[in-house]
Amino acid sequence: MATARLLVRPETRRTNSPTSANRRRRRVRPERLAPYVLVAPAVLVILGFRLWPLLLGVNFSFTGDGDRDGTPVGLDNYAELMRDPVFRIALRNVGLLVLLLPVAVAIPGLLATFLYLRVPGARVFRTVYFFPAVLSPVIVGSIFNLLLAYDGPLNAGLGAVGLGPADWLGDPHVAMFTVAAVHIWATFGMALVVFLAGFATLDATLIDAARTDGAALRQVIWHVIVPGLSRTIQFVFVTTMIGMLTSMFGLLYVMTGGGPGGATYLPEYYIWIQQGQMNRPALASAASTVLFLVMLVVGLAQIGLLRKATRED
């Protein structure tokens, strides 16, 4: 026994020595720091090229334009925005796009579901659906300007079946819906890819079990696929909303130019007009701040509602 103690004690002393502990710490520290080192470049880019310019823009929105350039004016720019009927139209159109957002998410979601369930020709459809996403907004706008012209092929087809022509881009009550529909068609391919990636994480046995129990397709989608893709749906909702509110400038510029009568103005187009044509950067900064706040509120509300709906299911 004594011999055994003598053999064990030196090893115990060596493993519990301060030198061994320091060596273990030195081995662990690089592993703990690795995630922070990998994330640091992205964080620096966000801080330097996103957050800092955003703060500068918010600060600039409280200064004046023209003769009052650089002079603090408080909330004068925001008050002028609220008095401007064109900006109010732009905010109304934001509300319209928010109402159309579920449609913009449901279309790629349903198409991704059919592709996941291996409908005939799924590979061909996948390519066709994604193709519009690689086209420039200028090209898309030019194509639909020809298709939707008053004497264009779409109205000619409607006239052939007795429905009569429609002024798709000249009617102020229709133009915004038309541009929004074109934007959804041109961009749903990216959301489709995200949904397909989400389906890759879905447990296929749940769908097979639901089918075995005799569940209809609608029940499978609502009770199996939607809960299983809740986080993917949240992501697509937020990114689609951001795209609809900040990426329609090209279509608006080519298809309507903000008309007719300002009916298709969105905040981003209003910002460009004030900054690029009216030379009012402070007012444009105020409009940018309002747009950011609207996106933040709508995005948080959407995430909250989707999480609540998922918990109830």
TrEMBL record:
Location of this chain's protein in the cell: Cell membrane
CDD domains: TM_PBP2
SUPFAM superfamilies cross-referenced by the UniProt entry: MetI-like
Annotated keywords: Cell membrane, Membrane, Transmembrane, Transmembrane helix, Transport
Matches recorded under Pfam families: BPD_transp_1 (PF00528)
TM regions (residue ranges): 33-52, 94-117, 129-150, 174-202, 235-255, 282-306
Residue span of region Disordered: 1-26
ABC transmembrane type-1 domain location: 91-302
Coiled coil regions, renumbered to chain: none
Topological relation to the membrane, as annotated: Multi-pass membrane protein
Primary localization class, coarse: membrane
Family statement drawn from the similarity comment of this UniProt entry: Belongs to the binding-protein-dependent transport system permease family.
Name recorded for this polypeptide: Carbohydrate ABC transporter permease
Species for this entry: Hamadaea flava
